[in-house]
Amino acid sequence: MPLTEALFDTVFINDLGHVVAGIVAGFLSGLVPGVGNTIMLFLLYPILMDSSLFQMLVFYVALASVSQFSGSVIATVFGVPGESSSLPAVREGKRLFERGVGNFAISSAAMGSVFGSLVSTLVVLGLLPFVAMGIMKFYSTNVQFFLMWTVTLSVCALLGTSWRQNLMVFAIGVVLGMVGEHMMPSFVFAKDLLPYRQFPMLYEGLPLFPVVVALYVFPTLWQTREQFKDFRYESTRDYTDDASTWTHIREWWRHRWSTLRGSAFGAMVGLMPYISTTVASNTSYAFEKKRGTRNGTYRGDGDMDSLVAAETANNSCILVQLMPLLLLGVPMTAGESVLLSLIDSNSHVLNWQVTLEQNIFTKLALWFILINVAAIMLCWPMVRHVNLLKRFSMNQMMWGTALILVLLVFYTGSQQNATWYFFVVMVMLLPLGYLLRRTETLILLIAFILQDKLMHATVVFYNINFG
Amino acid sequence: MTLIQKLGAFVIALTISVMATGAQAEKKVLDVLVPYSNTGNNWKQAVMFSEALQSKGYDSEVVHTANCFKNNRHIEESDRPGFYFLAATDMITNAVNKECIQEVTKKTYLVPHIYRSNAVCVRRSDGIGEDIDAILAWIGSKDRVTMASTHMLPDDFSELGKQFGNTVKKVEYKGSSRAFKGFNAGDTDLLYIGYTNREINAPNLNCFATTDGVNGTAKFSDVFPGWNMSKLVFFNHLIGANMNSKQKKDARNIIIEVLADDPKLSNYYSSAFIPTTAELEKRGLGYDDFWADVVAWADGSVSDKTIKAWKKGKLK
Hints:
The complex is a heterodimer of chains A (467) and B (316). Chain A is an all-alpha fold. In chain A, 73% of the residues lie in helices and 1% in strands. Chain A is built from 20 helices and 2 strands. Chain A starts with a helix and ends with a helix. The mean pLDDT of chain A is 84. In chain B, strands 1, 2, 3, 4, 5, 6, 7, 8, 9 and 10 form a 10-stranded mixed sheet that branches. In chain B, β5, α6 (158-164) and β6 form a beta-alpha-beta unit. The N and C termini of chain B lie far apart (73 Å). By secondary structure, chain B is of the alpha/beta class. The longest helix of chain B is centred in the N-terminal third of the chain and has 24 residues, at 3-26. In chain B, α4 packs across α13. The mean pLDDT of chain B is 87.
């Protein structure tokens, strides 16, 4: 499809609602530490229930991009990291804020992010034909098997503190994911142990929503609550900004080379599973800081170059990260894993053929740029109202999030005429969630979601080579 | 705008809305349920059916029920008339392996759907050539031959190894689309699959033999004479859900109509040499043949008593 046609499709009103919803969700996701994109995806699942494949993808892209904007605002003004990729913003942004140039720190990081999104788009569109050709020729089950397992197991090596504990959590996720009837290979898991006859819905497997709330959201919110027990959205000064837009642009332009370096880092690191935004932003930050120290330009009371490079890098990652998901169905982040499971539950199929036939990449890339531009235009004025957050305590936000999710368990259950089944599953798994509260339950979630795909790839791989 | 004009506009809008609601209420409903994967031939056909029915003024949705259990639950909970595809092999696999029974009685059985040949294919890029003897010699030259197929076939292809004096290993995939893609990417040596347009038009695929020898291909019984799968065709049936006898009659008629009239559907089957409902009914095929097929596929492994229970919609 030619670019003009894709552009027309992009502007088409059908997807606009999802883009706006994604932008709002992303904005809120960055504001509340501990909630993040993964939980936000679940919070807004009802919006996605009847959505098309593209609408789901564009919603996610908006969510992931905009949360980086608002995350860095919170990090800069209050010194609290929305996500681990915001740590450089906490370090440098907070110092800049205390120095009285928080407004420039926020605007330069945001403009850098928009620039990063442009670079990322160019990289993706430039690589696409070669990658697609490679996949068509070489994406056999053997390749798929190694890729799926490497990406999935890397989560055990890269997250948390102990790989043994991670493997145990991973195994629990796999076992829970295996409950029910399977087509490949054809069997019913623990047929004599589990009460399938009494609860025939067990044949369909444990429902995603209650499992996620009990075993991922609950422990995550518990951890966040403990971590931010005494935290309040407070700072020694309020956010103010009297500078003109032109002054902000000029200020960012002074840091254009840092922006460029950050963009390059992001685009390169984007394919690292599960930790790409964190690695991109922290590596880019470390490089810029070292460079500044060597050249004698690094400022100990807040360094704009380092901040801009780090913030640009994490936004530059987002579209590159999506390539394996869109072409191979292999998720590279926790959010993407959840998105994939929601795509599956909506009976959509995601692979290179669908992506190329529906021209998803081009349309998504164009939306990505528009979303970033919209985000800066919408979020920037809202920064002035960031002080409103001081009215809420962290506890209130955590309880509010938990309450909404419990209500959503009822809602999604009722949609499938299984309200009480969903509720019972959640309640029965809550004690396990409590026991696992000090572990990296994201690993459990990923194992639970990807178990079926891993099993299919493994069985086919075994039969081809050894069976 | 004056008050009279506003009232006039309101009355017109109300009339249009009532008429539209009335038209909506009169629409006949016929959903297409898919208790299979959403990637393969079943899904593709379900989408075509639904679109064809919509073009005839029906309210038709494709419902992805994914498996036997969900399909049964959907039928129980929904009151919308619909139908789903079912072959004897699916019935056996679901009942024996998963203890899930699909109700195929005279009340629910709708019509025979298609009678499609299966095919065995090689890749042209493997450089074997088009000659059947050369292909058979190539198969025979290997100690271990892998053949991609779907998971719904109750046979492991080991019988075929006897003909070639080697081991033939079936590699199952979840759905024909995955088997097709895996084979094209070089996963296995051979592909055993339903003979559809996809297989006919794939440039790298040489489907050299089919069950009925359609489209100039060799007949399975000539190429693989001793193989118990050589006579297997994909004999699919349509099973109704939530229908009374009037709705059933109407569904049968509209299905025959769209299979003949709808350009997409008719082309899909005719270009792959697949006879459909009207032709199959002309041949006298129907409900009894479904169960005859079940008995033939069960091949003595399921008792008569159990099959009698299945016929009543019970597991045992």
